[in-house]
């Protein structure tokens, strides 16, 4: 099987937590809670002793997000079999306003609320749109105010002293893994930062890393009177493309018809910073995709993408639009963390412990996305490395109970990813029929939760629990 994710033993075999016994504890905690969805931390453990051991572990000063995640990230890059991958990055906040004031947390977006921020990058194969692992993760808390953004002359600070530097940290950190692989960093509008494009052009991200960023700033363009968004409107439409748009809290899932334009520009430095850095970044390619058949009551899709990839044809432009669509995976990652694993409901009493717990759950959320994006893989025995021998045996037993012998659905190759995901999703409430849509993350995570519970009964019934 390609792009195998590591086991917990592989992740924590050589971890540096200050005591080798903590390596064993990390494995045990991860194996215990991985398939516990929509349950509290306390309900994830069989007894109070297990919960107390986990509490001591995540509160240990030598246990940090960097040490919890480091080997997992290394394994993810080590296992890459593709020659080009997307690195999709974004930021989310975790809000604990429902708790009394806790040590190690800081203010978050809404005034008076406490929490911390997470900025991960995930690895995506653009050819089959599968999640291959975690590329990086940066946790931080604000010390006060609103992150110094209200401070006078904040714009004069170098990018390294601003929160926005996190958008540059991801392409910088992945450089140690670029041998034999090229990367395209994909991000939404918050990453539309002049310094990001400048750093790429100056070679600070190496020769194998390109950018694909959704535009937010209506930038000044070298040699043009119009700014970026007005200039685009003067370009001819190069083609029409229909694409499927995923559902979000703002829109329903639908097929959108997009007018596509593209061209090349040189971005001028913003007035506030142009005195201390090169005044323009040349050879930035713009792809504009605007919806023409927007349903009533819905906002039209309008994506203006800035890329350092050369765009010389409609095919090039459409490829980058499809890559940008993969940004949806990181939204799903955040949804799994908050709605599936409910990390904002955990009752640990320090920010240090909460960040460590979130780090464990982050790896599990990536593993779940990996599994979800493998739902069409029917290679024989492809699921075997991902599941234990007992889990595979249990699923084979469940297949006869969950799917009628008279069912007309197409049955995937036994013990393949497609087969395992189908069994687990049905267990999680997926209504299977010949015309049903593919299973989603909710039926998958609920099915994994039930599989975890059913496994205890199965081991007991087959005298394997001892």
Strand content: 15-25%
The number of domains? 2
Q: What is the CATH topology assignment of the largest domain?
A: Transposase Inhibitor Protein From Tn5, Chain A, domain 1
CATH evolutionary superfamily of the largest domain: Transposase Inhibitor Protein From Tn5, Chain A, domain 1
Quick synopsis:
This protein is α+β, with helices and mostly antiparallel strands and 466 residues long. It has 13 helices and 11 strands.
Q: What is the topological layout?
A:
Blueprint: H1 8-12, H2 20-33, H3 48-59, H4 65-78, E1 84-89, E2 92-95, E3 106-107, E4 114-125, E5 130-140, H5 166-173, E6 182-187, H6 194-201, E7 209-214, H7 228-232, E8 239-245, E9 254-268, E10 280-291, E11 302-307, H8 314-325, H9 328-340, H10 351-372, H11 389-402, H12 417-427, H13 441-461
Parallel strand pairs: 1-6, 6-7
Antiparallel strand pairs: 1-4, 2-4, 3-4, 4-5, 7-11, 8-9, 9-10, 10-11
Helix pairs in contact: 2-3, 3-10, 4-10, 9-10, 11-12, 11-13, 12-13
Give structural notes.
- It is a single chain.
- The protein has 466 residues and is α+β, with helices and mostly antiparallel strands.
- It is 34% helix and 19% strand.
- The chain has helices at residues 8-12, 20-33, 48-59, 65-78, 166-173, 194-201, 228-232, 314-325, 328-340, 351-372, 389-402, 417-427, 441-461, and strands spanning 84-89, 92-95, 106-107, 114-125, 130-140, 182-187, 209-214, 239-245, 254-268, 280-291, 302-307.
- Strands 1, 2, 3, 4, 5, 6, 7, 8, 9, 10 and 11 form an eleven-stranded mixed beta sheet that branches.
- The chain is globular and about 75 Å long.
- It starts with 7 loop residues before the first helix and ends in a 5-residue tail after the last helix.
């Amino acid at each position: 099987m390609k792009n195998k994710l590591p086991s917990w033993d592989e992740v924590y075999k050589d971890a540096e937590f200050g005591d080798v016994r903590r390596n064993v504890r990390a494995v045990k905690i991860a194996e215990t809670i991985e398939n516990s969805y929509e349950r509290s931390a306390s309900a994830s453990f069989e007894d109070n002793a297990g919960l107390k051991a986990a509490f001591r572990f995540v509160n240990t000063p030598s246990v940090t997000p960097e040490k919890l995640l480091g080997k997992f990230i290394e394994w993810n890059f080590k296992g890459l079999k593709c020659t080009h991958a997307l690195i999709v990055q974004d930021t989310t906040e975790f809000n604990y306003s429902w708790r009394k004031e806790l040590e190690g947390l800081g203010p978050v977006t809404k005034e008076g609320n406490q929490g911390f921020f997470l900025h991960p990058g995930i690895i995506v194969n653009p050819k089959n749109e599968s999640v291959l692992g975690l590329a990086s993760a940066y946790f931080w808390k604000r010390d006060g105010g609103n992150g110094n953004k209200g401070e006078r002359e904040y714009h004069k600070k170098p990018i390294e002293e601003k929160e926005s530097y996190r958008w540059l940290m991801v392409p910088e950190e992945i450089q140690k893994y670029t041998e034999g692989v090229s990367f395209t960093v994909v991000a939404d509008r918050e990453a539309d930062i002049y310094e990001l494009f400048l750093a790429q052009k100056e070679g600070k991200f190496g020769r194998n890393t390109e950018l694909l960023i959704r535009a937010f700033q209506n930038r000044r363009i070298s040699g043009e009177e119009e700014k970026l968004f007005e200039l685009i409107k003067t370009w001819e439409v190069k083609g029409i493309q229909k694409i499927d748009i995923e559902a979000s809290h703002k829109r329903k899932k639908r097929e959108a018809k997009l007018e596509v334009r593209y061209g090349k520009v040189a971005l001028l430095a913003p007035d506030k910073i142009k005195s201390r850095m090169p005044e323009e970044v040349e050879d930035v390619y713009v792809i504009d995709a605007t919806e023409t058949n927007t349903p009533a009551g819905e906002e039209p899709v309008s994506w203006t993408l800035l890329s350092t990839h050369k765009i010389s044809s409609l095919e090039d432009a459409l490829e980058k639009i499809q890559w940008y669509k993969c940004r949806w995976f990181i939204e799903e990652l955040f949804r799994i963390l908050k709605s599936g694993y409910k990390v904002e409901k955990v009752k640990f009493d320090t920010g240090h412990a909460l960040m460590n717990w979130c780090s464990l759950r982050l790896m599990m959320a990536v593993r779940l996305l990996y599994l979800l994006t493998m739902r069409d893989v029917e290679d024989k025995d492809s699921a075997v490395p991902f599941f234990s021998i007992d889990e595979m045996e249990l699923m084979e037993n469940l297949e006869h109970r969950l799917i009628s012998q008279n069912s007309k659905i197409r049955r995937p190759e036994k013990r393949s990813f497609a087969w395992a995901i189908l069994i687990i999703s049905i267990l999680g409430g997926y209504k299977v029929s010949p015309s049903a849509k593919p299973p989603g993350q909710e039926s998958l995570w609920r099915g994994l939760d039930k599989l975890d519970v059913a496994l205890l009964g199965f081991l007991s019934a087959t005298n394997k629990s001892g």
